Amino acid sequence: MEQIEIMARGLRFPEGPVALADGSVALVEIARGTISRVAPDGSVTVIAETGGGPNGLAIGPDGAYYLCNNGGFEWAEREGLTLPVAQAKTYAGGRIERVDPASGAVTRLYDRCGERKLRGPNDIVFDTEGGFYFTDLGKVRAEDRDHGGVYYARADGGFITEIAYPVLTPNGIGLSPDGKTVYVAETETARLWAFDLDAPGVARKQRFPLSPHGGRLIAGLPGFQRFDSLAVMASGNVSVATLNTGHITEIAPSGAVVRQVKMPEAYPTNICFGGPELRTAYITLSGTGQLATMTWPEPGLALAFAR
Predict the structure, then answer these.
(1) Pairing state between β 160-167 and 148-154
(2) What is the CATH number of the domain that holds 207?
(3) Could you list the residue range(s) of the whole structural domain that residue 33 is in?
(4) What is the DSSP letter of 140?
(5) Which of 99, 193, 238, 290 could link 215 by a cystine bridge, Cβ 3.0 to 4.6 Å?
(6) Which residues pair with 216 in a beta bridge?
(7) What pLDDT digit, counting tens, does each position of 235-259 carry?
(8) What is the pTM assigned to this prediction?
(9) What pLDDT score was predicted for residue 2?
(10) Alpha-carbon distances of 71 from 46, 94, 96, 143, rounded to whole Å
(11) For residue range 184-195, what is the model confidence (pLDDT) as tens digits?
(12) CA distance 99 to 105
């Protein structure tokens, strides 16, 4: 196992890490209903109380946080891990929110795309134009589940459009270094898809039977592995948090698996990069409520509005 250090403990299902210039990390605590900041010394402060299920997090062109709120989960303890298992009893829909980092004020931007309500927004990435792509994982109940999808929207709350629908449990999302490809990790199939872009929010679709939703298949993993969030590397490779086996799996655009780095638990959910030359990986170990850090073999890709 690579040298991994624990930066913070006692978090309540952390996800959505965003590395900040001062060495701290903003992230969500889904089970706590907050956006929180982890200082370099491991101390945790609350930036905003969002309620619901704060999930993917990104900094927008105005310096605010943009949040995928999945509406909330019910939770269970399994093999020493705290895990989401179903739609919350208090669930009132999914939404995209803007959060003021100074005041903590939360503004709802989107809760639907046309007539389709957002069910469980999960992860988000901004392009250099100031718009953002996001996934909607859907929602699971005891007897049925909602479809997921991939969307593009503007930060001013005035425009949202569908990239792909339906998609089975779309989770992590990221952009290639040239901004011309959107990568989407599909949780339950452990598949990595690519959507090639003709313009912001406009994808060039693969036709059936080559694709069920227009994406181009990059890779899939064998066995009972599952994908969560992802981060794109400066090289163009894609590092995907891999559940159940507990790895970070780095995949080349060709589909080749470059490396699998073992984590200290089975539920690493997110990875982001910061520090000198973007070589420091911050990884959420969500089942045990920890934020881990390690030096990665290569640099991550600088995000559009990182601060």
Answers:
(1) antiparallel
(2) 2.120.10.30
(3) 5-295
(4) B
(5) 193
(6) 194
(7) 999 999 999 999 999 999 999 999 9
(8) 0.97
(9) 66
(10) 19, 5, 10, 19
(11) 999 999 999 999
(12) 6
Which single residue is written with the structure tokens 């452990």?
190
- The CA distances from residue 134 to 77, 154, 176, 226, in Å, are 29, 11, 15, 19
Cα gap 292→144, rounded to integer Å: 35
Rg of the chain (C-alpha set): 17
Residues 6+ apart with CB under 8 A from 156: none
CA distance linking residue 204 with residue 227, whole number of Å: 24
Residue 182 lies in a domain: yes
Render the burial of 26-65: b for 16+ CB within 10 Å, e for the rest. bbbbbbbbbbbbbeeeeebeebbebebbbbbbbbbbeebb
Residue 306 lies in a domain: no
Q: How many domains does the chain have?
A: 1
Omega into 276 within 30° of 0, i.e. cis?
no
In which residue are the tokens 């196992």 written?
Answer: 1
Distance of CA 173 to the CA centre of its chain: 6
Peptide bond into 209 cis (omega under 30): yes
| Amino acid letter for position 90 | T
Task: Tell me, yes or no, whether 105 lies in a domain.
Answer: yes
- The partner residues of 19 in beta bridges, in order of sequence, read 25
In a domain, 304, yes or no: no
Run of H or E including 68: strand 65-69
